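Blinded run. Sample ID left blank on purpose so nobody reads anything into the name before looking at the predicted structure. Input follows.
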Amino acid sequence: MDNEKLRLIAACAFGLEALVKRELIALGYQPHVVQPGRVAFEGDWKDVCRANIHLRVADRVLIEVQAFDAPDFEALFETIKAHDYARFIPVDAKFPVTGKTRLSQLTSLPAVQRSTKRAVVESMKHFHGVEELPETGELYKIEVALLKDVATITIDTTGSSLHKRGYRTLVGPAPIKETLAAAMVDLTVWRPDRPLLDPFCGTGTIPIEAALAGLKIAPGINRDFASTRWAQIDRKYWNDAVTEALDLQDNDTQLEIEGFDVDAESLDMARYHAKLAGVENQIVFGQRAFEDTVTDREYGCLITNPPYGERLQQEQQDQLRSLYQQFPAVLQQLPTWSLFVITSMLDFEKIVQKKATRRRKLFNGRLECTYFQYLGPRPPRLGDAQISDLQNESDVDQAEVETPTKPAVAIAAPVFAGLQAKDHEQALIFSQRLTKRARHLRRWPTRRGITCFRIYERDVPEIPLVVDRYDDALHITEYERPHDRDLARHSAWLELMKETAAETLDVPIEKVHLKSRHKRSKGDQYEKVADAQLTQQVTENGLKFWINLSDYVDTGLFLDHRVTRQMVREQSEGKSVLNLFAYTGSFTVYAAAGGAVSTTTVDLSKNYLQWAQRNLELNSLYSPKHEYIARDCVEFVNEAVESGQRKYDIVIIDPPTYSNSKRLDDDWNVQTGHADLLNATRKLLNADGVIYFSTNFRKFKLYEDQLSEFSIQEISKRTVPEDFRNRRIHRCWKLTSGN
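Blinded prediction complete.
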C-alpha cells in the first residue's frame, strides 16, 4: 500500500483556493480547484504527511473515497456499501460520520449521516470479513457532502484544523486564524528582505505567520495529526516529511518584523506565542498607539487586522471611525510603504479617502471582510528576474512592479544597518577563542561519557555569549551588555556570531540555538510555559535526559551541577532523598540510579515535575517509590516539620535567587530566607543525614552565625566542573547535623 494512489483534497476557506493551489504546486503536485473551498491533487500516503506538515493556508487534508450521484437514499446507501472501505479504515477504527447537504434532494442531514454510517459499517464488515466493529482504535472521521445531488465521501487525515500550529496557546480578544494570517501575508508584496509592520498585532498572529513563512518553517512541523498513528502510514513517512521540512528551513535570514499594540497583556501573549513558534528573535513587539507609528525603514509592508465594528459596543462606533481616519496621517510618514488591511468596515476607502489598488473578499471566521491592498512604490533595486516573477503571480497586481510616478523619498539610514569591520573582527576573535577552548576540551568529555559541556562563557567581554554543547547541537545564550549597535545591526551581529560558532565547531546551523537572557525581576523565575516538546535526548555519566534547546532560556539540564549530581549518586544507595526546587529532576535521576530507596521531588511547576517524571522513565527508573509534589518548597518543608512524618538521608536544595507563591505573605529570596529554610530542613534529616545546598547568586553570603546547629563545609571548588572557567558559577555547601 506504500505507493497506493489517493485522491486528496486540500480544504480551505472560500477565496483562498488560488493560494492553496500555489502552495501545492510548490510542493510538486498538479492541483486543480474542484469547487469553492476544495483543491484536489493526486498523491499517496507519503503525500498525506507532506501536505499536512507544509500547507499554510489550507484548513485540512482529506482523502476522497467516493464521488457519485445520490438522488435518493437507496443510491447513497448501496453505492457506499458496495465500495471497499476496508482499504482505508482498519477493522477497529473509530469512524464517526459528519455531513452537509446543499442544493440536493436529500435535505435531512441526520438521515444522510445515519444512512452513510450504516453503509460504511456494512462495507467494512464485508471486506474485513468480520461480524463486529469495536471502534476502539484510531479516529478516521468521515464526511458526506451532498452538492446538487452528488455525494462526496471523504476521510479527514488532519484532525484539529491546520490553523492550530501549536504555538497559540493563549487567546486574546477577537483572534484571527493562523491560516487567514498566512494568507494575508501571502497576498502582499512582502518578501523576507523587506520590513513588515503590524500596528494592531494583538497576540501576534500576523507577525508570527510572516516569520514562519519568511524562514520557510513548515507550519505543521510541531504538531500531530489524526493520521499520525494510522496503520497505513509508516512512521518513517512522517519522519521523512519532518526531515524534508527541516532541510527547507532558511535559518540564515534575519527578518525585520515588528508588531505593536496598545494592550500590554496582548503583547505578553504575542511574545510568548513567538517564543513557542521559535521566532522570538525575529520579531520585535512593543506597546505603541497606532497614531505613533513611525519607522526609518523604506519599502516595507504594513499588514494588519485593526478593530472592527463587531469588536466594539455601539457607543464606541465613533471612536472606531476616528481610529480609521488616522490611517492617512500615519501613512504620510511611510511614503514608500505598502498597506494591507482586512476589515469588515465596507466604507473603509471612504473613511481614509483613498481607493485601494486592489480589494479581495475574505472571511474572518464567518464574518465577511474585505482585504484592502494599497501598493506603494517598488524598491529601486528590484531586478528584472524579480519583476518577471511578480508579473507571473496571479494574486499580485501589476501596480507593484511599475515604476512610481514620483521618486521614492530618500532616507539616509538603510533598511538593515550593515555589519561593520569591528563586527567581523569580533567574529574572528570569537572563532579563535572557540577553537582554543574546543582543543582544550577535546579529550576528557568523551572519555568520561560526557556529551554536554561548556565551551565558552563570556571569555571576551565584548562578546557576552555563553556556548554550551549538547551532543551534536549548540546552545548559545546572549547576556545583556551595553553596545553601540542598533537593533538591526545587533540582530545581524548575533547571526554572525551564531554562524561563526557553527562553522568553527563544525555544527550544522540548524542545530545552533541562540537565545537572549535578560535579568529577571523579583519573583519571576518560573517560566509561564505550556508542556515542553521534549524531542532531544542527551547523555551524562551514562544517564539520559530530555532537553529542550529551542523553547526555554534554560535547557532542562544545568551543566554546572554535573559533579554534585555524581556525588549524590555515589551516596544514595539505600538512602531516602529529598530534592527541593527540583526543576526537571536531574538530581532525582542520579539518586534513583544510585540506588535510593525513595525520592521526593518538589517543585512549584507541574510542567517541570512532568519533565522530571519523563527523565526517570527515560532511564527505566520510574516507580511508585519516587514521589512528585507540586508545591512551594518552603511551605512543603514547614508542613513536613509540623507533621513530623518525613525523614530523609540526603536533601538537595538548589533554589533560585527569588521564589514567590500566592499562598505566602511575602516573597522568598535565597539571601534572606536560606537560614530559616536550612534550619527547618535540618529537622527532616535522619541522624546521619546531609544537606547539599547551592546557589548561583553571585553576591550570596551564607549566614553561618544563624546555622549553629550545623557542621558546615563549603565544597564549591570540588563541585564546579573543569569545563567552567568561571569557578564561581555556583557555590555549594555540605551541611550535617552538629549534634
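Unblinding after everyone has recorded impressions. Residues 382-417, 519-532 have pLDDT under 50 and may be disordered.
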